[in-house]
Design a protein that fits this description.
The complex is a heterodimer of chains A (468) and B (666). Helix content of chain A is 70%, strand content 5%. Chain A is mainly α and 468 residues long. Chain A has 3 domains: 97 residues, no CATH class; 83 residues, no CATH class; 229 residues, MetI-like fold, CATH 1.10.3720. In chain A, helix 3 runs parallel beside helix 8 and helix 3 crosses helix 17. Chain B is an alpha/beta fold and 666 residues long. Among the domains of chain B are: 71 residues, no CATH class; 310 residues, P-loop containing nucleotide triphosphate hydrolases (Rossmann fold, 3-Layer(aba) Sandwich). An 8-stranded mixed β-sheet of chain B has the order 6-7-8-3-9-10-12-11, with helices on both faces. In chain B, strands 18-19-20-15-21-22-24-23 form an 8-stranded mixed β-sheet, sandwiched between helices. A 4-stranded antiparallel β-sheet of chain B has the order 2-1-4-5. The radius of gyration of chain B is 26 Å and the shape is globular. Chain B starts with 5 loop residues before the first strand and ends in a 6-residue tail after the last strand. The chains are: A mainly alpha (468), B alpha/beta (666).
Chain lengths: 468, 666
């Protein structure tokens, strides 16, 4: 076998989630009234732009969720194939060079030298205390002092050229496709795109995509020669770490929602629909739960898990599996502590809906409670659910950072923005300061959360029935 | 002093609606004299409120005044800066809105809300303001004004709130009072009180009133001059006498003809076909042409001019200027539909001593602290193919009776026998199996259809739930039903929001009919609709009754509809039926003082035959704490001492007519 697939728990859940989204999309395609708000979303410029950015993040996260183990090279006469204990993902393969080019310790972005002085043995036996050259970063330069600026400009031009070629290819394809769909000449299709006259803002789409492609091309050409975000304490490329953290962030954002949704939906609608003692019990539960400080509950749960994992070492065969269980557990406990808000919203909405006359008309037909909930109430609260999921997502990504900073977040061995920020606590205290891990984590998180917020903002507008 | 107070000339107000402009008000001109009541009459969406808001310069964000002038005493309001406008609003022109619940600030006492205007526009301060506030509240007839002054709006009833709103409007003695549907949200007896008040105040203070209403009856009782609006322009303007004696514009005549009433019993009501044209483009002809029975080629080619047909009576119609076409009297009404005569047969529905009490819970453990006796011993019976109207003011429990009969709310006591079977004892599946026979049509056609279901799914739902037909039959049935209620079969695959109010009510009726019921509870099915649409729905219900032999329990507060539509009437007051009988008995010879007051309070169009209004003091008491003895005695003009002790027993006048009142004790 070429490789042995590894299915981590969070991977399974992510694929299930994607399947669910696919199913929803398929269902939406058939229903005119469900498709309408999405269409409205696609017609807003900031909606399209943020969707493109979000999709890029999701693509990285999904590629990073296809895990496997490579076989070890045959040693001696052993017949069986042994697999490496290191779990890799498809993304790791793509970003292989980034992963493997490990320096000795800190180095600044685009540096050719280490960030700390070391004693270097000169060929004559003399010793010199200076910044040593990096093994990989800027290794092709003979005299970094003089050549660096020129090289950066040249490489940037090269990356820009690639981006331009790619983008114009895509533009031509898009124009052709639109022309074919509308039955006009490709030139005419391109003209409407350029003037921004389309219903779907294709121009905005192309500009956002162009910027993304430009960033990607520059990143590719530069990271072949330099560490564009520098390296961390053990010499790992910070850009690579930031990219790996995307998966962690997305997992926390989405899986937590997955855990929280059944609680919120079921209990919220039940409380609002049945009222009486059911309502009382559910209200008491969530009032109690939301008055316990969330961080305390999470810390306790994570510590319990840690103890369990320490006493059952054999259950987890790789480091990644251990980290993954902890991530999953974090999602679950975050989900359990965060369903109350949505639950309260849904209860209120259901209380309003159940008094609506169409529900009473259904009761007059003798429609059962379950059917009323499934056919009348659930579809009518779905817009609230969608909106609050997207809004919660960005809050959860930020929560991960805070929890890791406090020390109850994801496994320290797992790459995450929270861990990067946590590490930066000591780095910022150094003299001279190491600022790039924090900056990289900040930039990535900022872009993700900003686009998620913009997207949810547009979505709230698009799904608000009053704007119809 | 002969110059008019307010002159509106060629006012155009457009609303931005995305890419198009809705021309809500399109060239409206009129003048209001001092001491005059001027009424603007029209159906919803014709631009009458927008005209009032434009005069006050209070248009919504999307609205703008495109052209025209508004002269108040010769001063052009549209040219005033906003700061100058603020001294006009409240001081010279005051406005009373439709909904008293939302026009008062819920967190301020009513006294302070009245005082606010005084502080803004007068130099009164301190105790003088207090004195003036009390004077104003007294003037609008707020009982016990000194104590009420410190109450919050939620402590007052709807009628009292509207009085406070009027007091605020009057605070600075404005020259012009704009009343935008001031009584639409109120009950008939309260409406009579408020209209009375407005009339009295106008007389005392000599201000001009601009009354906006859709109700011909209200207009007939209040206005000296009347303008009818249609699709953004005024189509007819006349003095009251001329207007009600001989309306000239085809639209106005249609409006009169579509009013239900005793005189039209047994006939179809006139309807205006089609709907108001979209207002986002220029018209090349008459706006009413597409719906007019008299329209001919000229109507769609040429815009009719504003012309005087008699002194002070102006109309915008080609018919009245051309001699080439003679106005034939309105088309002959369809032949009277045969009404099944009152045959004494077994009742379909028999309700005996129905009680629905809602517990009032208090405290941490939700102990029952009392009961709201929403329905307290109601008995009635309906025969197949007949209509029983249940009449009463809002809050008297008539909707709860309907829901109690359908077992949507389980009754606290009493019996409901449908076709000989006791429904109150049935539960779960046994009840579900019988639900097909009795259905309900609700008041608000916007709330009664699930916005996320297609019409086909909506109609299908009942048939699926009750398993009355197979899939193929259901499709055929659905097409037949849509035809029956006057909708095309193509509307099956559309969503409710694509339909107008009247069409939605048709869908709701089709949904109820789908399971072949024998009784339909109609809970105010036309009160959210315009007069012309109401006529369509009433015609439809009447037709279906003749065709299918349906029995209706028709819950309403509109007595004109009752006179037109019902066979029998039951009048409800505070959870009990006070009078019952056939429609002729109750409407022509009401016995109970409440029925008499209710009937007298209805504004009538026919100015000649106005009844003497019996004024009822106060409001409906709370059903949580009904008065001892006869529930009506605190408001009754003929109350005796015995009325305060025990609830009167029912007295029969004929086999069908009975009332509960001590006046007729033998």
């Amino acid at each position: 076998m070429l490789f042995k697939p590894v299915l981590l728990w969070t991977d399974v859940l992510l694929w299930l989630l994607l399947a669910g989204v696919g199913l929803y999309a398929w269902k939406v395609r058939q229903r005119e009234h469900l498709i309408r708000p999405w269409r409205r979303l696609l017609r807003s410029r900031s909606g399209v732009a943020s969707a493109v950015v979000l999709l890029a993040f999701v693509a990285v996260g999904v590629l990073d969720s296809l895990h496997f183990r490579l076989p070890l090279e045959k040693q001696g006469s052993n017949t069986g194939i042994h697999y490496s204990p290191e779990v890799l993902s498809v993304f790791d393969l793509i970003a292989g060079p980034l992963r493997k080019r490990v320096e000795k310790t800190y180095s600044a972005p685009f540096a050719a030298h280490l960030y700390t002085k070391e004693t270097i043995e000169l060929p004559g036996g003399k010793q010199l205390r200076d910044y040593p050259r990096l093994k990989y970063g800027g290794a092709h330069l003979r005299d970094p002092e003089r050549e660096l600026g020129e090289d950066v400009v040249l490489t940037a031009l090269q990356g820009g050229a690639y981006a331009l070629i790619l983008l114009s290819g895509l533009t031509v394809l898009l124009s052709l496709w639109l022309a074919r769909r509308r039955g006009v000449a490709p030139g005419a299709a391109w003209a409407t795109i350029r003037q921004g006259h389309d219903e779907i803002p294709w121009r905005t789409f192309l500009i956002t995509l162009g910027l993304l492609i430009l960033c990607a091309c520059l990143a590719v050409v530069f990271s072949a020669k330099y560490h564009i975000f520098g390296t961390d304490k053990v010499g790992q490329d910070v850009f690579y770490l930031s990219l790996k953290s995307i998966r962690t962030g997305l997992m926390i954002g989405t899986l937590t929602t997955l855990v929280m949704l059944p609680f919120a939906l079921l209990l919220g609608i039940m409380a609002g629909y049945f009222r009486g003692w059911v309502d009382d019990v559910i209200q008491y539960v969530y009032t109690t739960l939301s008055s316990i400080p969330g961080v305390l509950l999470i810390a306790a749960a994570v510590l319990i898990l840690q103890v369990y994992m320490d006493s059952n070492q054999d259950a987890f065969d790789t480091v990644v599996a251990r980290a993954d269980i902890r991530l999953l557990f974090l999602c679950v406990i975050l989900g359990i502590t965060s369903w109350t808000g949505l639950c309260r919203l849904l209860r209120g909405e259901t209380l309003k809906l159940r008094e609506m006359e169409f529900i009473q008309a259904a009761t007059a037909f003798g429609v059962g409670h379950f059917r009323i909930i499934a056919r009348h109430i659930l579809p009518n609260v779905m817009h609230i659910v969608l909106i609050s999921i997207v809004l919660d997502f960005s809050a959860l990504v930020l929560a991960e950072a805070v929890l890791s900073y406090v020390g109850v977040g994801v496994d320290p061995a797992m790459q995450s923005w929270g861990n990067m920020i946590n590490g930066a606590r000591l780095e910022m205290a150094r003299e001279p300061m190491v600022w790039w891990s924090l900056a990289a984590a900040f930039v990535f998180m900022f872009v993700l959360v900003l686009s998620a917020n913009l997207f949810s903002d547009r979505m709230r507008d698009a799904f608000d029935p009053r704007t119809r | 002093m002969n110059a008019p107070l307010l002159v509106v000339d060629n006012l155009r107000t457009w609303l931005d609606a995305g890419k198009t402009q809705v021309r809500a008000v399109d060239g409206v001109s009129f003048a209001i004299n001092r001491h005059e009541t001027f009424a603007l009459l029209g159906e919803s969406g014709c631009g009458k409120s927008m005209t009032a808001l434009a005069i006050m310069r209070l248009l919504p964000e999307a609205g703008r005044i495109v052209s025209g002038s508004v002269l108040l005493d010769g001063q052009n309001l549209l040219a005033l800066p906003e700061i100058g406008m603020r001294t006009v609003r409240g001081k010279r022109i005051a406005m009373v809105f439709q909904e008293p619940m939302t026009s008062l600030n819920p967190v301020m006492t009513v006294g302070r809300q009245v005082a606010e205007t005084l502080y803004r526009h007068t130099s009164l301060r301190g105790a003088a303001v207090q004195a003036r506030v009390l004077e104003l509240l007294d003037a609008v007839g707020l009982p016990d004004a000194r104590a009420r002054c410190n109450d919050y709006p939620f402590q007052l009833s709807g009628g009292m709130k509207q009085r406070v709103v009027i007091a605020i409007a009057l605070a600075c003695e404005p020259d012009l009072l704009i009343a935008d549907e001031p009584t639409t949200a109120l009950d008939v007896t309260i409406q009579a009180q408020v209209l009375d008040l407005l009339r009295r105040l106008q007389h005392e203070r000599g201000m001009a009133v601009m009354l906006i209403s859709h109700d011909l009856g209200v207009v007939a009782g209040m206005a000296q001059r009347i303008a009818v609006m249609y699709a953004g322009e005024i189509v007819e303007m006349a003095d009251r006498e001329a207007f009600f004696a001989a309306p000239r514009h085809p639209y106005t005549r249609k409006l009169f003809a579509s009013l239900p009433g005793a005189a039209r019993r047994g006939r179809q009501l006139e309807i205006i076909r089609g709907s108001v044209p979209p207002l986002d483009s220029d018209f090349s002809g008459c706006r009413f042409a597409s719906r007019c029975d008299f329209a001919w080629q000229k109507c769609s080619d040429e815009i009719p001019v504003w012309s005087e047909v008699a002194p002070g009576h102006q109309v915008r119609c080609h018919l009245l200027q051309s001699t080439e076409r003679v106005v034939s009297e309105t088309v002959v009404p369809p032949l009277p539909a045969s009404l099944p005569e009152s045959t004494v047969e077994t009742s379909l529905l028999e309700v005996d001593d129905l009680k629905v009490h809602f517990p009032i819970r208090k405290g941490l453990f939700k102990r029952v602290a009392g009961h709201v006796r929403a329905v307290d011993g109601v008995s009635l019976a309906i025969s197949p193919g007949r209509t029983l109207a249940l009449v009463g003011e809002s809050g008297c429990g008539k909707t709860t009776v309907g829901k109690g009969i359908l077992q949507l709310i389980r009754p606290t006591g009493g019996s409901v026998r449908f076709a000989g079977e006791e429904l109150t004892q049935l539960s779960g599946s046994a009840l579900r199996a019988r639900r097909a026979a009795f259905q309900i049509v609700f008041q608000d056609p916007y709330a009664s259809l699930d916005p996320r279901m297609r019409v086909a799914d909506i109609i299908d739902e009942g048939m699926v739930a009750l398993g009355t037909a197979s899939a193929g039959e259901r499709q055929a049935q659905m097409d037949k039903l849509l035809g029956q209620v006057g909708l095309s079969a193509g509307s099956k695959y559309r969503y409710p929001h694509e339909f107008s109010g009247g069409q939605r009510q048709r869908i709701a009726i089709a949904r109820a009919l789908a399971v072949k019921p024998r009784l339909i509870v109609c809970d105010e099915p036309t009160s959210a609709l315009d007069v012309s649409v109401q006529a369509q729905i009433l015609n439809l219900l009447r037709g279906l009754q003749d065709e299918l032999g349906l029995a209706y329990l028709f819950i309403t507060h509109n007595l004109a509809v009752v006179e037109y539509f019902a066979h029998e009437v039951a009048v409800m007051y505070l959870g009990r039926i006070v009078e019952r009988g056939t429609v002729e008995e109750v409407m022509n010879a009401p016995r109970h003082p409440y029925t008499q007051a209710l009937l007298s309070a209805v504004p009538v169009v026919d100015t000649a035959s106005r009844r003497e209004i019996i004024r009822l003091a106060g409001d409906l008491p709370s059903p949580a704490n009904p008065p001892l003895g006869c529930h009506f005695h605190p408001r009754c003009p003929r109350a005796m001492s015995v009325c305060r002790q025990n609830y009167p027993a029912a007295i029969n006048f004929s086999a069908t007519h009975r009332t509960s009142c001590y006046l007729y004790r033998k």
